[in-house]
Design brief:
Residues 4-154 form the Peptide methionine sulphoxide reductase MsrA domain. InterPro entries: Met_Sox_Rdtase_MsrA_dom, Met_Sox_Rdtase_MsrA_sf. By secondary structure, the protein is α+β, with helices and mostly antiparallel strands. Helices cover 38% and strands 22% of the residues. The chain has a single domain, classed as Peptide Methionine Sulfoxide Reductase, Chain A. The protein has helices at 11-18, 41-45, 66-77, 103-118, 146-149, 151-154, 160-177; strands spanning 3-8, 24-32, 52-59, 85-86, 89-90, 96-100, 129-132, 136-138. The strands form two sheets. The protein has a six-stranded mixed beta sheet, covered by helices on one side. It has a two-stranded antiparallel sheet with strand order 4-5. Helix 4 links the parallel strand 6 and strand 7 (129-132).
């Protein structure tokens, strides 16, 4: 089953942008692109692991193409002109990256970036990094399908601060259970 892996700010936002698309079968949020094995959210949040908050998207290529996913990622899911930040979130863990799984994905992603750049789709240059996919560490369960679980509190991306406060409470509950 084909997979696309993107990092572009908070993985809650990215996941909520892709889950409703026809052809997206399921998504998993996690961490990739860094040095630490089995990182936790707390580890990645320090900005010291080298990992980015990321999203794996499993899709049906008969219903949605990899190129369409890349274009959606770059034009709808986040701001690819922001370096190491998205909205209120700052740090290398929020960088914009496309982690390709094969040469074809790399070429398709680069073609979309080149086209958007040539069209001057954005006022600023695209800073999204293309990198080979490496180990993907699945994030804690409370991060999965976050928007569906906390729709009322989460709302739109600009309400993420409220959601992060709720998430901290959920993490504390999980720690107490363990």
């Amino acid at each position: 089953m084909p997979v696309a892996t993107f990092a572009g700010g908070c993985f809650w936002c990215a996941e909520s942008e892709f889950r409703p698309l026809p052809g997206v079968l399921f998504t998993i949020v996690g961490y990739t692109g860094g040095r630490m094995e089995n990182p936790t959210y707390d580890d990645v949040s320090t900005g010291q692991t080298g990992h980015a908050e990321a999203l794996e998207i499993y899709f049906d290529p008969a219903k949605i193409s990899y190129t369409a996913l890349v274009e959606h990622f770059l034009t709808r899911a986040h701001d690819p002109t922001e370096l190491n930040r998205q909205w209120v979130d700052e740090g290398p863990q929020y960088r914009s990256a496309i982690f390709y799984h094969n040469e074809e994905q790399k070429q398709q992603a680069q073609a979309v970036i080149d086209r958007l750049s040539a069209e001057k789709y954005f006022k600023k240059p695209i800073v999204t990094v293309l990198a080979p996919a490496g180990p993907f560490w699945i994030a804690e369960e409370y991060h999965q399908n976050y928007y569906d679980k906390y729709r009322e509190t989460y709302g739109q991306p600009h309400r993420r601060i409220e959601a992060k406060k709720l998430m901290k409470k959920e993490r504390e509950k999980e720690r107490l259970r363990n």
